[in-house]
Amino acid sequence: MAGRDVPVNQCSKPTGWLGKITLWRMNASHSKLTDWGLGQIPVENDYTILDVGCGGGRTVSKLAAIATLGKVYGIDFSEESVAATKRTNAQWIDLGRVEIRQGTVSELPFADGIFNLITAVETHFWWADLPNDMREVLRVLKPGGTLIVIAEIYKGMTTGAGKFAEKYASRTGMTLLSVAEHQELFNNTSYSDVQVVEKREKGWICGIGRKPLASTF
Fold it and tell me: In this predicted model, what pLDDT tens digit does every residue of 100-120 receive, in sequence order?
């Protein structure tokens, strides 16, 4: 696996020239997956939205094009990702429609209860402490707000990529969950109206949960 360590590390935290290439590839390869995932939920034009692990910034762009009366924030702990997202969304940023920050999902630099929607595309399997990080995301959601996690790798996939990722998950630091484990994760961290949707022929999955209207967070 030594030869694969560099690209794997670049997926979790892109750096340098290889990070730039990785982010460009992410923008291209995740686009259809993102469109499918976002198609599972309503996204209103006045939403305030956060994209966690914004990577190369393509998801932020898609969301800004939908939320024409709202605002989209992106956050990533990779300096290279923050820079790439700012480049990708320069026009939206100039218009005040997008704001990008460097930070971690474990300590989101936002006040309680401000987002209608939080998205996480191809990132939650890298989070340092999934249950606590899910609760941190819940903190910054508005009551009734939605979290959606979208991925093309998960435990129990039948495709080659999924089998490979599951085999080496302990070495890469990825936390891969099955469909049932995604459901349990949302349920056990106080989300309501939980759904897990698969597109098995593609190996795609998304988990969706809402912050209860009477949440104490």
Answer: 999 999 999 999 999 999 999
